[in-house]
Every structure is written in C-alpha cells, then in structure tokens.
Amino acid sequence: MSLLPEPRPILEMRGISKSFPGVKALRHVDLSVYAGEVHALMGENGAGKSTLMKVLAGAFRADPGGEIRIGGNPVRIDDPLAAKRHGIAIIYQELALAPNLTVAENIYLGRELSRSGVADRRGMIDGARSVLDRLGAPFAPDSLVAGLSIAERQMVEIARALHAESKILVMDEPTTALSSRETDALFALIRRLRADGLAIVYISHRMAEVYELADRVSVLRDGGCVGSLTRDEILPDVIVRMMVGRDLSSFYKKEHGSGVHNEPILRVTGLGDGRRVQACSFTLHAGEVLGLAGLVGAGRTELARLIYGADVKSSGTIELAGRTVRIASPEQAIEAGLVYLTEDRKGLGLFLDMPVAANINLGVIGRDARFGGLLDRARGWQRAVEAIQTLGIRVASPAVEVGSLSGGNQQKVMLSRLLETRPKVLILDEPTRGVDIGAKSEIYRIIDELAKAGVGILVISSELPEIVGIADRVIVMREGRLVGEVSGGAITQESVIALAVGEGARA
Amino acid sequence: MTEKGALMANTEPTGVVPLRRTRLKGWMRTVGMLPVLVILCILIQAGTLYFNGEGRFLSAQNLSIVLQQAAINTVLGAGMTFVILTGGIDLSVGSILAAAAMTSVTASLDYGSLGIPVALLTGLLFGLLNGVLIAFVRLPPFIVTLGSMTAVRGIARLWGNDTTVFNPELPFAGISSGSVPIVPGYVELPGLAAIALVVIGLSWFILRRTVLGVRIYAVGGNPDAARLSGIKVWVVLLFVYAASGLLAGLGGAMSAARLYAANGLQLGQSYELDAIAAVILGGTSFVGGIGSIWGTLIGALIIAVLSNGLILLGVSDIWQLIVKGLVIIGAVALDRYRLRGSART
C-alpha cells in the first residue's frame, strides 16, 4: 500500500551504531519512518530495539558516523530534551507519570503555565481538556493519575505527547498490561493518530498486533537491521524467520544423556498466583535440562519465584522426588533441596559489599555452624577455595568483595552459593545474562555436568539459541500460562518462538 | 541514568582484582576514625598546656573520667551498631534507659541487687516490642522507635509518679564506683568502662564469629537477597532490636549505679542521638551492611574526649553543642565519601 511517489520520510536513522565496552549493541542500523504510518519494530529480546529507541530518545549517544534526520534535516540528539524539541515522544512500558498529580499537571509537567510566577491552574486544565477531548478520553483533566487505570494512564502519556506537538510517537510494548477491550480502544486511537499524520513507531512482540496494525515492519537481529517489509509482505512465518535466522549450536555443550525418561524429580500441578501465573503444570526429570521459554513478561520469573516460595501461591501443589512438599518460603525450598538463581544478580542475588567467601557460604553457614551458631571459619574458607577452583572463578582471594568482580565471575559466585547446598532441583533464571562469551560457555559446561550428576535443572532464558542449545525439552509460557512443549529434534528457534508469540497452536 | 546502568553492566573488568587495593581499603575501613581520635587528644592536650599552663587532659585521673563518661554511650552505641548494620534505627534507647533506671532503682529498694536483672528485663521487653512491630507488622523502624521513644518516656515518668526515686544504699553502686585493676597498683579501669569493654567484646564476637553476625551484615547489605537466600530476616530484625533494648536496659542500670537515683523526665534525654553519632562516627554506613563495632567504640570515645576537652578548655556549653553538631555532620560527609569508592551505587 505504498503511496506513489514516496514522500520524504519524517524520520531517517542512517548507519546508527552503538557500542558498549565489549558489546556492539547496534551495528549500522537504518530506519526510515514516514508521517502517517504505523511502523512496527520487531526482534528477539536483546536484538537492539530498545537501544535504538534510546538513541532516538537521547538517552544513549550513538557512536560517531551515524546520522539522524528529522523532516530531511540532520539533527543532533544528545539528551532527552533535544529529542523532545525535535518532536519525538516515547511512551515506555513503565509509564513515566507522577501519580500524585492531576492529569492536567502531568500533561504540563516541566512546562507549567504561570502568571507572574503563580501556577495558572485554570489555563492548564482548559488546555489539557482540549487535548483529552481530541483523544476521546473518559476522564477529567483534574482527576488524579493515581486513580486511573493503566490504559487511561497511557492515554495521559499520549495526550502529553500530542500537547507537546510531537510528530513522532514511539510506543514500547504498549499492550502488555492491557485487557483485550482496552487494546482495541488503543488501536482505534492509534489509527486516528495515524490519520492525523503522526508517525508511530510500534515496538511489539505480538505477531497478531503487528499484523493488524502495522503499515511496515522492520526486524532487528543481533544489533543489525535484517530488513523491512511493507504491508502486503507481512507474513508471520517470514517475520519469525527474519527474527531468528542464525546458528550458534556448536557453542553449547550437551554431553549428558537426555534425562527425559528418568524418573520425575519435580512435579508442579496447577500452580498459580491468581494474577501473573495461571494453572501451570509440568514435570522435571532427574538429570534433565528443561528450558522454560517465553517472551519478557510472559510470567516465567513469576512462576519460578512461586515454586521457590518467594511469592505467595494461590493454588497448586509441588512434588519433590515423589513427595508433596509445602514450600512457603525460600528457606523451606532450600531445605527441601530446591534452589533458585535470580535473574537480578545485583538487586536480588549478591551481597556486593561482602567478601566472595561469605557470599559463597551464606546458604550453608547454618549447617556448618558449631555449637548451634559459631561460624566454622576454616570450613567456610575451604569451601570458598574449592568453589573458586571448580567453577573457575577468577579472583585473587576469597576475601575480595564480590562487588569488584566482573559479571561472569559474580554469576559463578552466586551459582556456587546454590550448589553448596547440594540441591536436587536447580532453577536458573537467565543464567548467562550480562556475562561475557567465555563465562557463558563455562556456565553451559557447569549446567551439563550438573545434569550428568542427576540434578534436575529448569533454565529460564530469553535467548533462543541458548534454550535450543542446552535444553533436552522446552516448555513455553505465554501470558501467564504454559502453552506448549517441544522436545528432542523438534526444538528449533522457530518452533519455540511460534509458541511464544502465539502463532500456530502446535509446532 | 539508564545509560549509566547499561554502561556499568558492560564496563566491568574481566581481569583479576588487585589484592593489595582490596586490603588497603579494608585496612582503612578498620582503622577508620582512630587517627581523628589521636589528633583530637593531642590538640586538646596542647590546648590545655597553652591556656592553663599544664597539660590537664592526659592525666590518669582525667582519662579515667573520660572513660567513665564514654561508658554508657558506648553500651548504647553497641546496640545501635547492630540496628544500623541492618539498615534500621533505634530512637527509643534514651527513653528505655530512663524506664530501666526507674524500675531498677525502685526494685533495689525492696530486692537489692535484683535491680540489675530488672533493668535488663525492662530493656529487653521494650526492645522486643520494637522488634515485633518492625519484623512482623513491617512498620518502618524510624516510626516504630519514634513512637516508643515517646511512649516509653511517658512510662518512665509514670513509674515514679513523675518524681525522682532515690536509693542512697544502692547495693550495686559498686559497678560504677569500683574499678578493675589492669596493672595492680598502677592502672585501674573504672567499673562502667570495664562493662562497656565487655559489651564491645561480646558484640564483636557475635558480629564476627557467629552465623547470626554474618546474617546481620547480609540483611543490611541486601535485604531482598537475604530473603531469597533463605535467611530468616525476621529472626535477625527481632534480635537486633531486642539487643538494642537489652543494652539500653544495661545502660539504665549503669546510670542508676552512678547516680543512686533515677528520674523519668531527665534521664537519658537525647542519648539516642549520641549513640547514633558514635556509630556514624565509627564509619558504620547508615544504609546498613558496612561497619564495625570497633568503630563505634572509637566514635563514642571521640564524643567523650570532645566534651571533656571542651570543658577543660573552658568552652561554654553552648559552643560545645555547636562543635559537636559540626563534628557529626563532618563524619556523615566522610561516610558518603568512603561509600563512593565501594561497589554500592
């Protein structure tokens, strides 16, 4: 449905690269967006979508050599204010509103109207009302944002963008927290904005939405632009192939025999928390590496935390090695032989100010203690020295603070804390996130050896090649539910992502 | 902000951290404010030499007074160290001290030396109450102990009908008036100072040699990670507030022994602030997880030396307040400066 002759794009990004030390997050990405179109941006987690949009928003500064043009004129976007000045508005997944202020105050935030220093409330409410009317918003400009639903808050963000006379609107996964009715309303609104001539960049994982809404799709993979499709070329399987298309399988280690036919070690039945996780049932066998795939926000971490007792369950049972166990807290889980490696190493995992030795021993100091509470320091030191050796942690001494180690070494310290408790079941949440290539392959080796030793391992990962490379069987989660399973030779990136985005019932 | 986060995730060195730097940092942390204390002593000694013609500060008699004066604050500071290491605060120790002194002196009138356990029990009771409200009801420590500071002060006044209770024959006055010979015939440690040292020693043992101690640091360093790694956070919180209360009770007994009396209105007023100041001066981080009991001892000594020295130099009590306040602010500035170099962001 291209309009001939093509008008000039309102936004052109050319040859945008962004390197972080050790990582090339974007390489020579081109993106052209026209006024009056919805341009979908797709790609796996970590493909570079967010980085690209952060460059556009002025949150990241791109490497020299690239160029951004707005309406044909080259511009420099060095900070968020510059982005705003050039008419770019970004609506992030985590909405950036002040809940304690009114809708009007939020719309005028940073640009408050005033008469000789006194806030002009009347004027702001009137100004906000005209924008809200244009959007057909069902709430008043003087209502508090705290009382609005997520969908309504999104509308406030859109109103703020319109009010600032933005020409380019970027929406990052706007439907994640919306009901289907709210989604329909949002789509209607987006279509109206498109008709008004706005350029809309729409980041989404959901094939159905992209199919319904997008005029064009650009696909990113590994920080590079794979290609753009126009409306009539958009086909789900084409996009999936573009998103995946690579082979890294030799990098992974899988020497343990498939544990699929061993006896079950963990059986989860009907587990749910009433919100983010619904009636999940699966079985993990001894010596098996079971992958848990799904998109970000599908509820994988929430499911793991429920099993581990970190959050409150509303339904479901857990059986460990054939016995039903009550796990209401992490201590009980550890006691039962089930441990969980968090995805948030610094926030939820490590004690950064404490030495490596203390971090490794924290889970077992109670068991090792003499006279019911005295530290066995020699034992702890020995454990630390051995763990450093077996896991190949690069550190000068166990007395070094863990906060000063690299990501990969921190990850191994965290892992060794779990392994010291001799678990029967290991849940690993993004075990290689923020870890360099070398440490990655070492972590795969450790996983492989644990499986050989008969530990049941559940691996949550957003990196498809990783899941495909190390898992004996993969279960896939979407919107809080387990929606499918693939095993053996049927595990491919295509089959897993198809289940994760909900295209096709069974691969 | 996001940029910084993402950059930091990727700029971590992959190499091995030089051990020497780590050692140096640890050493600086341990030594902490000791040089400040030494310099302060020298300055005051020089000052008294200059203004009074004789160095009155560094005499056995005066140093013994300084230790005696530092003792109660050291004991309260030890309890406060436990609490602040978990990232909490206990504002109620001054009031608890007053209440414990009241119950202690009253009990001593009828039951003699049982006054000491009565003081300890009083302190423990109020400390446990704080702990329960913080660990189970999950109220913020500042608010809980602000409330108990006020309420317990009221209870202390209520106990003696808002009068001063005396016991001129207080049976356990010896813990204050007596002394412990260190080098018999030459050096003696005042009784209260000896108690304070024992408390410091015990606290060090708990913090550095027991499982509980490691868990206190862990809870203060990262409460979420502590819970996820299977630590019973409530046990730790209950312990630290109970310990702080118990030590405030001990402080009450010490104070009663010194005065042969207790007064619910005046006793222990603003002691919590001196205890917090001692902990912070000692280099313990206000957000928890970093610090040592030795630092608290040095912090309490700095405060006592400062008060004593300013009196010797003839500085008015008004100026003493101003100087003390500035020293506390300076110390917190130092705390910030230290934290900047560590892994915490």
Describe the structure.
The complex is a heterodimer of chains A (507) and B (345). Chain A is built from 18 helices and 22 strands. Chain A has helices spanning 49-57, 80-85, 103-107, 121-135, 150-163, 180-195, 207-213, 236-244, 300-308, 330-336, 345-349, 356-361, 365-368, 377-390, 407-419, 437-452, 464-470, 493-501, and strands at 11-20, 23-33, 38-42, 67-70, 73-75, 88-91, 114-115, 118-119, 168-172, 199-203, 216-221, 224-230, 264-272, 280-285, 289-294, 315-320, 323-325, 338-341, 425-429, 456-460, 473-478, 481-487. Chain A has a 6-stranded mixed beta sheet with strand order 6-9-10-3-11-12, sandwiched between helices. In chain A, helix 4 (121-135) packs across helix 5 and helix 8 (236-244) packs across helix 18 (493-501). Chain B has 15 helices and 4 strands. Chain B is globular, with a radius of gyration of 21 Å. Classes of the chains: A alpha/beta (507), B mainly alpha (345). The interface between A and B is large, with 55 and 42 residues.
